[in-house]
Recover the amino acids of this structure.
């Protein structure tokens, strides 16, 4: 049975307050911890990088050229 709890501002449905089960993408907790450490190191390195940012339009133009070249090679 679902019950409803009310406060002055919100109403909570009891069955919706329970956390949903989370399925990990990693086989073991060690793999998850290793990925987390790797990811955090990448973020820290990126934040510490003092090079100027590359505009989005420039990045998109460069990748579009790479994709177009690959398509031309496949067509031959």
């Amino acid at each position: 049975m679902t019950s409803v709890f009310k406060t002055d501002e919100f109403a909570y449905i009891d069955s919706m307050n329970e956390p949903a089960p989370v399925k990990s993408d990693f086989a073991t907790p060690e793999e998850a911890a290793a990925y987390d450490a790797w990811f955090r190191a990448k973020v820290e390195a990126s934040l510490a990088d003092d090079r100027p940012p590359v505009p989005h339009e420039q990045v998109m133009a460069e990748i579009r050229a790479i994709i177009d070249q690959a398509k031309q090679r496949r067509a031959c």
